[in-house]
Write a structure and sequence with these properties.
CATH architecture of the domain at 429-521: 2-Layer Sandwich
Number of helices: 14
Shape: globular
CATH topology of the domain at 429-521: GMP Synthetase, Chain A, domain 3
Strand content: 25-35%
Structural class: alpha/beta
Number of strands: 29
Distance between the termini: 49 Å
Radius of gyration: 23 Å
Largest sheet: 9 strands, mixed
Length: 526
Protein backbone atom coordinates (compact mmCIF):
# COMPACT_ATOMS: atom_id res chain seq x y z
CA UNK A 1 0.00 0.00 0.00
CA UNK A 2 1.38 3.43 -0.98
CA UNK A 3 1.92 6.03 1.68
CA UNK A 4 -0.21 9.18 1.78
CA UNK A 5 2.56 11.51 0.65
CA UNK A 6 2.38 13.52 -2.59
CA UNK A 7 5.03 15.82 -4.05
CA UNK A 8 4.12 18.68 -6.41
CA UNK A 9 6.23 19.92 -9.35
CA UNK A 10 9.63 21.49 -8.49
CA UNK A 11 9.56 25.00 -6.98
CA UNK A 12 9.92 27.96 -9.31
CA UNK A 13 13.37 29.53 -9.62
CA UNK A 14 13.93 32.47 -7.29
CA UNK A 15 14.83 34.81 -10.16
CA UNK A 16 11.32 36.25 -10.47
CA UNK A 17 10.37 35.89 -6.82
CA UNK A 18 10.19 39.53 -5.72
CA UNK A 19 6.95 41.40 -5.15
CA UNK A 20 8.59 44.82 -5.33
CA UNK A 21 10.50 43.92 -8.50
CA UNK A 22 7.22 42.88 -10.11
CA UNK A 23 5.68 46.17 -9.01
CA UNK A 24 8.55 48.18 -10.48
CA UNK A 25 8.67 46.15 -13.71
CA UNK A 26 5.33 47.63 -14.78
CA UNK A 27 6.77 51.13 -15.15
CA UNK A 28 5.99 51.26 -18.88
CA UNK A 29 2.83 49.14 -18.81
CA UNK A 30 -0.16 51.46 -19.17
CA UNK A 31 -2.74 48.67 -19.11
CA UNK A 32 -5.28 48.63 -16.26
CA UNK A 33 -4.26 46.38 -13.39
CA UNK A 34 -6.96 46.84 -10.73
CA UNK A 35 -10.24 48.49 -11.67
CA UNK A 36 -12.30 49.32 -8.58
CA UNK A 37 -16.07 49.45 -9.05
CA UNK A 38 -18.14 51.43 -6.54
CA UNK A 39 -21.74 51.82 -7.69
CA UNK A 40 -21.55 53.34 -11.17
CA UNK A 41 -18.09 54.83 -10.55
CA UNK A 42 -14.76 53.23 -11.36
CA UNK A 43 -11.18 53.96 -10.32
CA UNK A 44 -8.45 52.42 -12.47
CA UNK A 45 -5.00 51.64 -11.07
CA UNK A 46 -2.69 50.91 -14.00
CA UNK A 47 0.37 48.66 -13.73
CA UNK A 48 2.56 51.73 -14.29
CA UNK A 49 0.82 53.59 -11.44
CA UNK A 50 1.54 50.97 -8.79
CA UNK A 51 5.24 51.55 -8.02
CA UNK A 52 4.97 55.37 -7.87
CA UNK A 53 1.98 55.00 -5.52
CA UNK A 54 3.93 52.63 -3.28
CA UNK A 55 6.90 55.04 -3.24
CA UNK A 56 4.66 57.93 -2.20
CA UNK A 57 3.35 55.87 0.70
CA UNK A 58 6.92 54.81 1.53
CA UNK A 59 7.99 58.47 1.82
CA UNK A 60 4.99 59.27 4.02
CA UNK A 61 5.84 56.31 6.26
CA UNK A 62 9.48 57.35 6.50
CA UNK A 63 8.41 60.88 7.45
CA UNK A 64 6.23 59.32 10.18
CA UNK A 65 9.27 57.56 11.63
CA UNK A 66 8.56 54.09 10.26
CA UNK A 67 11.64 52.00 9.61
CA UNK A 68 12.78 48.49 8.83
CA UNK A 69 11.03 45.84 10.92
CA UNK A 70 8.20 48.09 12.13
CA UNK A 71 4.62 46.89 11.70
CA UNK A 72 2.32 49.07 9.61
CA UNK A 73 -1.41 48.41 9.89
CA UNK A 74 -3.35 48.85 6.65
CA UNK A 75 -6.97 49.77 7.38
CA UNK A 76 -8.70 50.54 4.09
CA UNK A 77 -11.52 49.09 2.02
CA UNK A 78 -10.66 47.56 -1.36
CA UNK A 79 -9.01 50.36 -3.29
CA UNK A 80 -5.79 52.00 -4.43
CA UNK A 81 -4.96 53.24 -0.93
CA UNK A 82 -4.87 49.68 0.40
CA UNK A 83 -2.53 48.66 -2.41
CA UNK A 84 -0.29 51.71 -1.98
CA UNK A 85 0.03 51.40 1.80
CA UNK A 86 0.53 47.62 1.66
CA UNK A 87 3.44 47.85 -0.79
CA UNK A 88 4.67 51.16 0.64
CA UNK A 89 5.29 49.49 3.99
CA UNK A 90 7.37 46.81 2.29
CA UNK A 91 9.22 49.47 0.28
CA UNK A 92 10.79 50.81 3.50
CA UNK A 93 11.48 47.34 4.89
CA UNK A 94 8.53 47.41 7.27
CA UNK A 95 5.86 44.71 7.64
CA UNK A 96 2.32 45.36 6.41
CA UNK A 97 -0.55 44.17 8.62
CA UNK A 98 -3.93 44.08 6.82
CA UNK A 99 -6.75 44.98 9.24
CA UNK A 100 -10.37 43.89 8.55
CA UNK A 101 -12.48 46.71 7.13
CA UNK A 102 -16.23 46.53 7.99
CA UNK A 103 -17.95 44.76 5.11
CA UNK A 104 -21.35 46.41 5.29
CA UNK A 105 -20.58 49.80 6.79
CA UNK A 106 -19.34 53.03 5.26
CA UNK A 107 -18.05 54.16 8.64
CA UNK A 108 -14.39 53.64 9.46
CA UNK A 109 -15.15 52.14 12.85
CA UNK A 110 -12.51 49.92 14.37
CA UNK A 111 -14.13 46.90 16.06
CA UNK A 112 -12.73 45.47 19.27
CA UNK A 113 -11.24 42.54 17.36
CA UNK A 114 -9.17 44.90 15.21
CA UNK A 115 -7.96 46.89 18.23
CA UNK A 116 -6.67 43.69 19.81
CA UNK A 117 -4.98 42.84 16.53
CA UNK A 118 -3.19 46.21 16.53
CA UNK A 119 -2.07 45.65 20.09
CA UNK A 120 -0.87 42.12 19.29
CA UNK A 121 1.29 43.23 16.36
CA UNK A 122 2.44 46.43 18.13
CA UNK A 123 1.67 48.55 15.06
CA UNK A 124 3.82 51.66 14.72
CA UNK A 125 1.15 53.45 12.71
CA UNK A 126 -2.22 52.78 11.07
CA UNK A 127 -2.63 53.73 7.40
CA UNK A 128 -6.29 54.69 7.12
CA UNK A 129 -8.68 57.25 5.63
CA UNK A 130 -8.89 60.64 7.41
CA UNK A 131 -12.38 59.74 8.65
CA UNK A 132 -10.81 56.98 10.75
CA UNK A 133 -9.43 59.59 13.19
CA UNK A 134 -10.57 58.81 16.70
CA UNK A 135 -9.96 55.06 16.67
CA UNK A 136 -7.33 55.51 19.37
CA UNK A 137 -4.25 54.87 17.21
CA UNK A 138 -1.86 57.12 15.22
CA UNK A 139 -3.44 57.53 11.76
CA UNK A 140 -1.46 58.14 8.58
CA UNK A 141 -3.18 59.26 5.39
CA UNK A 142 -1.35 59.97 2.15
CA UNK A 143 -0.50 63.69 1.72
CA UNK A 144 -1.34 65.02 -1.73
CA UNK A 145 2.11 66.44 -2.45
CA UNK A 146 4.40 63.58 -1.47
CA UNK A 147 6.88 62.58 -4.19
CA UNK A 148 9.95 60.39 -3.80
CA UNK A 149 12.43 58.20 -5.60
CA UNK A 150 13.22 56.18 -2.47
CA UNK A 151 14.79 52.84 -3.50
CA UNK A 152 13.06 49.71 -2.30
CA UNK A 153 14.59 47.85 0.64
CA UNK A 154 12.65 44.68 1.19
CA UNK A 155 12.51 43.45 4.79
CA UNK A 156 12.45 39.99 6.33
CA UNK A 157 8.64 39.91 6.62
CA UNK A 158 6.39 41.20 3.84
CA UNK A 159 3.19 41.02 5.89
CA UNK A 160 1.41 39.42 8.81
CA UNK A 161 -1.78 37.52 7.98
CA UNK A 162 -4.03 37.36 11.03
CA UNK A 163 -6.87 34.87 11.31
CA UNK A 164 -10.23 36.62 11.01
CA UNK A 165 -11.95 37.33 14.29
CA UNK A 166 -9.21 36.12 16.59
CA UNK A 167 -10.01 38.67 19.29
CA UNK A 168 -9.12 36.56 22.31
CA UNK A 169 -5.61 35.68 21.16
CA UNK A 170 -4.79 37.20 17.74
CA UNK A 171 -2.32 35.04 15.88
CA UNK A 172 -0.54 36.40 12.83
CA UNK A 173 1.29 34.23 10.31
CA UNK A 174 4.61 35.87 9.38
CA UNK A 175 4.98 35.82 5.60
CA UNK A 176 8.37 36.42 4.01
CA UNK A 177 8.64 38.29 0.68
CA UNK A 178 9.99 35.20 -1.06
CA UNK A 179 7.25 32.92 0.26
CA UNK A 180 4.58 35.40 -0.86
CA UNK A 181 6.06 35.69 -4.34
CA UNK A 182 6.53 31.94 -4.78
CA UNK A 183 2.96 31.30 -3.65
CA UNK A 184 1.57 33.79 -6.16
CA UNK A 185 3.71 32.27 -8.93
CA UNK A 186 2.64 28.75 -7.98
CA UNK A 187 -1.05 29.59 -8.11
CA UNK A 188 -0.69 31.48 -11.39
CA UNK A 189 1.13 28.55 -12.97
CA UNK A 190 -1.28 26.01 -11.49
CA UNK A 191 -4.14 27.77 -13.29
CA UNK A 192 -2.13 28.68 -16.42
CA UNK A 193 -2.89 32.37 -15.84
CA UNK A 194 -1.34 35.06 -18.03
CA UNK A 195 -1.77 38.54 -19.54
CA UNK A 196 -4.77 37.51 -21.64
CA UNK A 197 -6.80 36.56 -18.55
CA UNK A 198 -9.31 38.87 -16.86
CA UNK A 199 -10.27 38.49 -13.22
CA UNK A 200 -13.29 39.57 -11.19
CA UNK A 201 -13.38 39.63 -7.40
CA UNK A 202 -15.37 41.02 -4.46
CA UNK A 203 -13.16 39.43 -1.80
CA UNK A 204 -11.73 41.80 0.83
CA UNK A 205 -8.05 42.57 0.41
CA UNK A 206 -7.40 42.06 4.13
CA UNK A 207 -8.26 38.36 3.71
CA UNK A 208 -5.55 36.04 2.36
CA UNK A 209 -7.83 34.83 -0.42
CA UNK A 210 -8.33 38.41 -1.66
CA UNK A 211 -4.82 39.66 -0.98
CA UNK A 212 -2.76 36.74 -2.27
CA UNK A 213 -5.29 35.00 -4.51
CA UNK A 214 -6.33 38.21 -6.27
CA UNK A 215 -3.84 41.07 -5.82
CA UNK A 216 -0.52 39.21 -5.69
CA UNK A 217 -1.42 36.49 -8.19
CA UNK A 218 -2.65 38.99 -10.78
CA UNK A 219 0.59 40.95 -10.28
CA UNK A 220 2.66 37.77 -10.75
CA UNK A 221 0.77 36.71 -13.87
CA UNK A 222 0.37 40.26 -15.24
CA UNK A 223 -3.40 40.23 -15.83
CA UNK A 224 -6.13 42.79 -14.98
CA UNK A 225 -8.76 42.35 -12.27
CA UNK A 226 -12.08 44.11 -11.75
CA UNK A 227 -12.80 44.58 -8.05
CA UNK A 228 -16.08 45.09 -6.16
CA UNK A 229 -16.50 45.95 -2.49
CA UNK A 230 -17.55 42.92 -0.38
CA UNK A 231 -20.64 44.76 0.86
CA UNK A 232 -21.84 45.32 -2.70
CA UNK A 233 -21.76 41.60 -3.34
CA UNK A 234 -23.47 40.73 -0.05
CA UNK A 235 -26.26 43.25 -0.69
CA UNK A 236 -26.71 42.34 -4.35
CA UNK A 237 -24.98 39.05 -5.26
CA UNK A 238 -25.97 39.36 -8.91
CA UNK A 239 -23.35 42.12 -9.36
CA UNK A 240 -20.57 39.52 -9.21
CA UNK A 241 -21.75 37.63 -12.30
CA UNK A 242 -23.04 40.73 -14.07
CA UNK A 243 -19.57 42.26 -13.84
CA UNK A 244 -17.95 38.99 -14.94
CA UNK A 245 -20.22 38.99 -17.99
CA UNK A 246 -19.61 42.65 -18.82
CA UNK A 247 -15.80 42.44 -18.71
CA UNK A 248 -15.65 38.90 -20.18
CA UNK A 249 -13.84 37.53 -17.14
CA UNK A 250 -11.89 34.30 -17.40
CA UNK A 251 -11.40 33.65 -13.67
CA UNK A 252 -12.82 34.45 -10.26
CA UNK A 253 -12.59 33.08 -6.73
CA UNK A 254 -14.96 32.84 -3.75
CA UNK A 255 -15.88 30.63 -0.79
CA UNK A 256 -18.62 28.02 -1.14
CA UNK A 257 -21.16 30.26 0.63
CA UNK A 258 -20.94 32.81 -2.21
CA UNK A 259 -22.11 30.29 -4.78
CA UNK A 260 -24.96 29.30 -2.47
CA UNK A 261 -25.89 32.95 -1.91
CA UNK A 262 -26.17 33.53 -5.64
CA UNK A 263 -28.36 30.44 -6.01
CA UNK A 264 -30.70 31.58 -3.24
CA UNK A 265 -30.84 35.31 -3.88
CA UNK A 266 -30.60 35.65 -7.67
CA UNK A 267 -33.99 34.31 -8.73
CA UNK A 268 -34.15 35.65 -12.28
CA UNK A 269 -30.65 36.23 -13.67
CA UNK A 270 -30.27 38.90 -16.31
CA UNK A 271 -28.92 38.01 -19.72
CA UNK A 272 -25.32 37.01 -19.08
CA UNK A 273 -22.36 35.76 -21.08
CA UNK A 274 -20.20 33.53 -18.86
CA UNK A 275 -18.68 31.56 -21.72
CA UNK A 276 -15.14 32.83 -21.06
CA UNK A 277 -15.12 31.85 -17.37
CA UNK A 278 -12.76 28.88 -17.30
CA UNK A 279 -11.84 28.98 -13.59
CA UNK A 280 -14.23 29.79 -10.72
CA UNK A 281 -12.22 28.78 -7.67
CA UNK A 282 -14.15 27.52 -4.65
CA UNK A 283 -12.21 27.42 -1.39
CA UNK A 284 -11.55 28.96 2.06
CA UNK A 285 -14.31 26.83 3.61
CA UNK A 286 -15.75 23.32 3.05
CA UNK A 287 -16.64 22.75 -0.61
CA UNK A 288 -19.90 20.94 -1.37
CA UNK A 289 -20.38 18.94 -4.56
CA UNK A 290 -24.13 19.67 -4.47
CA UNK A 291 -23.40 23.42 -4.58
CA UNK A 292 -21.09 23.03 -7.56
CA UNK A 293 -23.58 20.90 -9.49
CA UNK A 294 -26.52 23.23 -8.82
CA UNK A 295 -24.49 26.34 -9.69
CA UNK A 296 -23.12 24.96 -12.94
CA UNK A 297 -26.56 23.70 -13.95
CA UNK A 298 -28.20 27.06 -13.14
CA UNK A 299 -25.72 29.03 -15.24
CA UNK A 300 -25.10 26.58 -18.05
CA UNK A 301 -27.75 28.42 -20.14
CA UNK A 302 -25.53 31.51 -19.84
CA UNK A 303 -22.47 29.76 -21.26
CA UNK A 304 -20.83 28.50 -18.06
CA UNK A 305 -18.91 25.40 -19.03
CA UNK A 306 -19.02 22.12 -17.05
CA UNK A 307 -16.13 21.85 -14.62
CA UNK A 308 -15.62 25.63 -14.38
CA UNK A 309 -16.13 25.65 -10.59
CA UNK A 310 -12.89 24.26 -9.16
CA UNK A 311 -12.42 23.13 -5.53
CA UNK A 312 -9.15 24.40 -4.06
CA UNK A 313 -7.35 24.32 -0.70
CA UNK A 314 -5.31 27.09 0.88
CA UNK A 315 -3.98 28.26 4.24
CA UNK A 316 -2.71 31.59 5.54
CA UNK A 317 0.14 29.62 7.15
CA UNK A 318 1.22 28.60 3.63
CA UNK A 319 0.69 32.14 2.28
CA UNK A 320 -2.35 30.65 0.50
CA UNK A 321 -2.52 27.91 -2.13
CA UNK A 322 -1.75 24.31 -1.14
CA UNK A 323 -3.54 22.25 -3.77
CA UNK A 324 -5.71 23.16 -6.76
CA UNK A 325 -7.97 21.23 -9.03
CA UNK A 326 -6.90 22.74 -12.36
CA UNK A 327 -9.17 23.71 -15.27
CA UNK A 328 -10.54 20.68 -17.08
CA UNK A 329 -9.72 18.28 -14.23
CA UNK A 330 -11.95 15.25 -13.85
CA UNK A 331 -11.01 14.03 -10.37
CA UNK A 332 -13.48 11.57 -8.90
CA UNK A 333 -15.23 12.37 -5.63
CA UNK A 334 -14.46 10.44 -2.46
CA UNK A 335 -17.31 8.59 -0.75
CA UNK A 336 -16.69 8.68 2.99
CA UNK A 337 -19.18 7.82 5.75
CA UNK A 338 -22.12 8.56 3.47
CA UNK A 339 -20.67 11.92 2.38
CA UNK A 340 -19.50 13.02 -1.05
CA UNK A 341 -16.13 14.78 -0.68
CA UNK A 342 -14.77 16.63 -3.75
CA UNK A 343 -11.08 16.51 -4.58
CA UNK A 344 -9.14 19.73 -3.98
CA UNK A 345 -6.53 18.61 -6.48
CA UNK A 346 -2.80 18.03 -6.36
CA UNK A 347 -0.07 20.04 -4.57
CA UNK A 348 1.10 23.23 -6.22
CA UNK A 349 4.64 23.84 -7.37
CA UNK A 350 7.27 23.16 -4.71
CA UNK A 351 4.86 21.71 -2.15
CA UNK A 352 4.56 18.31 -0.49
CA UNK A 353 1.42 17.08 1.24
CA UNK A 354 1.33 14.15 3.65
CA UNK A 355 -1.46 12.77 5.85
CA UNK A 356 -0.49 11.62 9.35
CA UNK A 357 -1.96 9.77 12.30
CA UNK A 358 -2.09 11.05 15.89
CA UNK A 359 1.48 9.92 16.52
CA UNK A 360 2.75 11.88 13.51
CA UNK A 361 3.39 8.87 11.29
CA UNK A 362 2.38 9.05 7.63
CA UNK A 363 -0.65 6.85 6.99
CA UNK A 364 -1.47 4.74 3.94
CA UNK A 365 -3.30 6.08 0.93
CA UNK A 366 -7.05 6.22 1.52
CA UNK A 367 -6.67 6.53 5.32
CA UNK A 368 -7.97 9.68 7.02
CA UNK A 369 -5.60 11.77 9.14
CA UNK A 370 -4.17 15.24 9.69
CA UNK A 371 -3.01 17.11 6.59
CA UNK A 372 0.60 18.33 6.76
CA UNK A 373 2.39 20.53 4.23
CA UNK A 374 6.05 21.21 3.44
CA UNK A 375 7.61 23.66 0.99
CA UNK A 376 9.12 27.11 0.36
CA UNK A 377 5.86 29.00 0.85
CA UNK A 378 5.34 28.17 4.53
CA UNK A 379 5.10 31.00 7.02
CA UNK A 380 8.17 31.86 9.06
CA UNK A 381 6.09 31.30 12.18
CA UNK A 382 3.41 33.02 14.25
CA UNK A 383 4.33 36.56 15.23
CA UNK A 384 5.63 36.76 18.79
CA UNK A 385 4.28 33.30 19.66
CA UNK A 386 7.01 30.69 19.92
CA UNK A 387 4.76 28.08 21.53
CA UNK A 388 2.14 28.21 18.76
CA UNK A 389 4.89 28.18 16.14
CA UNK A 390 6.46 25.09 17.66
CA UNK A 391 3.09 23.29 17.63
CA UNK A 392 2.39 24.18 13.99
CA UNK A 393 5.86 23.81 12.44
CA UNK A 394 7.66 20.55 13.17
CA UNK A 395 10.70 19.27 11.31
CA UNK A 396 9.94 21.51 8.35
CA UNK A 397 6.28 20.45 8.11
CA UNK A 398 3.19 22.55 8.80
CA UNK A 399 0.60 20.64 10.82
CA UNK A 400 -2.55 22.27 9.47
CA UNK A 401 -5.19 21.00 11.89
CA UNK A 402 -7.28 19.94 8.87
CA UNK A 403 -8.24 16.33 8.27
CA UNK A 404 -8.04 14.70 4.90
CA UNK A 405 -7.37 11.69 2.69
CA UNK A 406 -4.81 11.31 -0.10
CA UNK A 407 -5.82 9.02 -2.91
CA UNK A 408 -4.39 8.70 -6.40
CA UNK A 409 -2.25 11.80 -5.89
CA UNK A 410 -5.28 13.91 -5.01
CA UNK A 411 -6.20 15.49 -1.67
CA UNK A 412 -9.68 15.25 -0.15
CA UNK A 413 -10.51 17.44 2.87
CA UNK A 414 -12.77 15.64 5.31
CA UNK A 415 -12.91 17.82 8.44
CA UNK A 416 -10.98 19.86 11.00
CA UNK A 417 -8.85 19.00 13.99
CA UNK A 418 -8.88 22.58 15.26
CA UNK A 419 -11.88 24.00 17.08
CA UNK A 420 -12.45 26.70 14.49
CA UNK A 421 -15.67 28.13 13.13
CA UNK A 422 -15.70 28.94 9.43
CA UNK A 423 -18.38 31.40 8.40
CA UNK A 424 -18.56 33.45 5.19
CA UNK A 425 -15.12 32.17 4.30
CA UNK A 426 -13.55 33.58 7.48
CA UNK A 427 -12.16 31.67 10.44
CA UNK A 428 -13.21 32.45 14.00
CA UNK A 429 -12.06 31.03 17.30
CA UNK A 430 -15.03 29.92 19.46
CA UNK A 431 -13.57 31.77 22.45
CA UNK A 432 -13.89 35.07 20.58
CA UNK A 433 -17.62 34.61 20.05
CA UNK A 434 -18.08 33.31 23.58
CA UNK A 435 -16.36 36.32 25.14
CA UNK A 436 -18.62 38.76 23.32
CA UNK A 437 -21.77 36.81 24.21
CA UNK A 438 -20.73 36.58 27.86
CA UNK A 439 -20.40 40.37 28.01
CA UNK A 440 -24.00 40.68 26.83
CA UNK A 441 -25.69 37.80 28.65
CA UNK A 442 -23.78 37.62 32.00
CA UNK A 443 -23.91 33.79 32.19
CA UNK A 444 -22.32 31.60 34.90
CA UNK A 445 -18.57 30.87 34.47
CA UNK A 446 -17.94 28.90 31.27
CA UNK A 447 -21.63 29.33 30.55
CA UNK A 448 -21.38 30.03 26.82
CA UNK A 449 -20.37 27.71 24.00
CA UNK A 450 -20.10 28.59 20.32
CA UNK A 451 -19.73 26.08 17.50
CA UNK A 452 -20.69 25.53 13.90
CA UNK A 453 -22.78 22.81 12.30
CA UNK A 454 -23.10 21.87 8.67
CA UNK A 455 -26.51 22.90 7.29
CA UNK A 456 -27.33 20.20 4.76
CA UNK A 457 -30.03 22.34 3.13
CA UNK A 458 -27.94 25.47 2.51
CA UNK A 459 -24.56 23.68 2.27
CA UNK A 460 -23.09 26.27 4.61
CA UNK A 461 -21.88 26.24 8.19
CA UNK A 462 -24.35 27.67 10.71
CA UNK A 463 -23.01 29.49 13.75
CA UNK A 464 -24.71 28.31 16.95
CA UNK A 465 -24.40 29.87 20.41
CA UNK A 466 -25.71 28.18 23.57
CA UNK A 467 -26.00 30.41 26.65
CA UNK A 468 -26.70 29.40 30.24
CA UNK A 469 -28.97 31.78 32.15
CA UNK A 470 -28.72 32.55 35.86
CA UNK A 471 -32.31 33.79 35.89
CA UNK A 472 -35.31 34.15 33.58
CA UNK A 473 -34.34 35.28 30.10
CA UNK A 474 -34.39 39.02 29.51
CA UNK A 475 -36.59 40.30 26.73
CA UNK A 476 -34.61 40.98 23.57
CA UNK A 477 -31.51 39.11 24.75
CA UNK A 478 -31.26 36.98 21.62
CA UNK A 479 -31.37 40.07 19.39
CA UNK A 480 -28.75 41.83 21.52
CA UNK A 481 -26.45 38.81 21.29
CA UNK A 482 -26.78 38.68 17.52
CA UNK A 483 -26.27 42.43 17.22
CA UNK A 484 -23.12 42.55 19.36
CA UNK A 485 -21.45 39.58 17.61
CA UNK A 486 -22.28 41.10 14.23
CA UNK A 487 -20.91 44.51 15.27
CA UNK A 488 -17.63 43.17 16.67
CA UNK A 489 -16.85 40.26 14.36
CA UNK A 490 -18.88 41.05 11.26
CA UNK A 491 -20.66 37.70 11.32
CA UNK A 492 -24.27 36.71 12.04
CA UNK A 493 -25.19 34.11 14.66
CA UNK A 494 -27.64 31.73 12.99
CA UNK A 495 -29.08 30.25 16.19
CA UNK A 496 -29.08 31.26 19.84
CA UNK A 497 -30.12 28.65 22.42
CA UNK A 498 -30.91 29.87 25.97
CA UNK A 499 -30.63 27.11 28.59
CA UNK A 500 -30.65 26.82 32.36
CA UNK A 501 -27.56 27.05 34.54
CA UNK A 502 -25.60 23.78 34.53
CA UNK A 503 -27.03 22.57 31.21
CA UNK A 504 -23.69 22.65 29.40
CA UNK A 505 -21.56 19.51 29.89
CA UNK A 506 -18.28 20.24 31.71
CA UNK A 507 -15.21 18.39 32.91
CA UNK A 508 -14.62 17.87 36.64
CA UNK A 509 -12.44 21.01 36.57
CA UNK A 510 -15.28 23.08 35.09
CA UNK A 511 -14.06 23.25 31.48
CA UNK A 512 -16.56 22.87 28.66
CA UNK A 513 -16.74 19.52 26.91
CA UNK A 514 -16.93 21.09 23.46
CA UNK A 515 -17.56 17.99 21.38
CA UNK A 516 -20.32 16.89 23.74
CA UNK A 517 -21.83 20.40 23.68
CA UNK A 518 -21.90 20.32 19.89
CA UNK A 519 -23.51 16.88 19.81
CA UNK A 520 -26.12 17.79 22.42
CA UNK A 521 -27.19 21.19 21.08
CA UNK A 522 -26.79 20.85 17.31
CA UNK A 523 -30.54 20.40 16.74
CA UNK A 524 -33.14 23.03 15.87
CA UNK A 525 -33.59 26.21 17.88
CA UNK A 526 -33.94 29.95 17.50
Amino acid sequence: MARAWVVGPPAASSGRASLLDWLASGANDERPWLTFHQGIETDVLRFCDAAPLARRWAKALEDAGVGAGDRVAVFFPNGRDFVGAFFGAQWVGATAVPVPWPATSLAADLPASAKLLLEACRAKVVCAPPRAEGIGWPILSLPADVETTTPAREGEAAFLQFSSGSTGAPRGAVISPRAAALSALGMAEGLSLGPLDVGVSWLPFFHDMGLVGVVLTSLAANFPVHVLQPGEFLLRPSRWLELASRVQATMTVAPNFAYELVLRRVRAPKELDLSRLRAMLNGSEPVHRATIERFEAAYAPFGLRPGAVLPVYGLAENVLGVSFQGPGATDEDLRLDGRVVPSVGAPLRGLEVAVRDEAGAIVDEGVEGEVTVRGPTLMTGYFDDEAATARALRDGWLFTGDRGVLLGGRLYLTGREKELIIKLGRKFHPADVERIVADVADPPPNGVVAFSVDDHETHQESLVVVVEQRRASEEGLVDRIRGRVSAELGVMVDRVELVGAGALPRTTSGKLRRKECTARFSGAGR
